[in-house]
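Q: Hi! New to this. If I give you a protein sequence and the SMILES for flavin mononucleotide, can you show me the bound structure?
A: Yes, paste them in.
Q: Okay, here:
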Amino acid sequence: MTWFKNTLTKSLNIKYPIIQAPMASAASIELAAAVSNAGGLGSLGLSYYKFEDILSDYKSLLRKTNHSINLNFFTHKNPKKNDIQAKKYMNEMQKYFSEYNIPIIPNLINTTEPFNSEHLELLLKMNPKVVSFHFGLPNSNYIKSIKQQKILIISTATTVKEAKILEDSGVDAIIAQGFEAGGHRGTFASSYNEGEIGLFSLLPQIVDATSVPIIAAGGITNGRGIAAALMLGAKGVQLGTAFLSCPEATVHPLWKKALSESSEKETRITKAFTGRPARGIVNRLLNDMENKKDIIPDFPTVGSVVKPLAHAAAKQGKNDFLSLWAGQSAPMNRNVTSKKLVELLIKETSSILKLYKNT
Ligand SMILES: Cc1cc2nc3c(=O)[nH]c(=O)nc-3n(C[C@H](O)[C@H](O)[C@H](O)COP(=O)(O)O)c2cc1C
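A: Thanks. Here is the predicted structure of the protein with flavin mononucleotide bound:
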């Protein structure tokens, strides 16, 4: 029995249990296609897409691969209006707009819509092998329709409680997202503090508490990490940060530079860029907002205000307002193509697991 054949690889119809994380705006169709063609599961994060672009990009992706693909959506709740908080936040941000001579401060507007009936209709039309959700699940009628069409459903848990909720809702596999993970915390039914659990503790507890295949995510960048996750009971792994240094990732050069210069202590969880906790490399806005969390409006409005600042500063070569999403293992990233990365991950995992074969 090889390490890479199990219930998860069978149901997803993939050769290796290695999933490239669906990183909204950072994972391109080239990245997803390369990973799927190399035997893993390529994913497309669709949350920041214009609705009308989804189908054409999906069709382009299908021209690049005929292997399984995962499409990913956010399932957040849009925020209630909070005028007092918004005013305090805008006052705080004013100084940056003055510094960059940007005369008009944009309004707080939703930068992404949660998975809705239009998305559902389109998803059923696209009919991918897998759909994954971040921040919980859409309503049970949507789940029913997706399951009727035999599209596999995956979602993220950051606590055992969330994993049990997902299992009871009928998901086919659960991503256990450790606190090391880059990007947004998937937390949806626990407090953010309760979800601050490292993968080594979270993963085996979720494996023991549920009976669907568990996918480990957070801080995995090489075969050692994959082998450890498998030992802890995972049936697969989902890697995000490791793929950000691949040429196929659509990552700003300043973000790439920050990744290559980062150290293990330089990432932190912040609400500064989107209004929802996410892990990124520390920069000016992250630092400035550290003690002002209470005035940051809820996801997903903040991005509309931060974006013009990110552009203006980046033009001057500064990453001060860019969301430099990255997990705690970013310093172990390798600058290789995504095809090469998947090949390395397979080779490394195989050679480590061989060491233990006869013991
Ligand atoms: C740049 C970036 C963007 C992300 N965007 C998404 C997303 O759109 N949807 C999602 O389900 N997860 C997203 N994630 C989280 C990943 O699915 C995963 O939990 C995480 O990357 C695992 O930790 P690692 O980055 O240490 O590998 C993102 C992660 C990163 C680094």
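A: Residues 7-76+113-251+333-355 form a domain with the TIM Barrel fold (CATH 3.20.20.70). Let me know if you'd like me to explain how to read the tokens.
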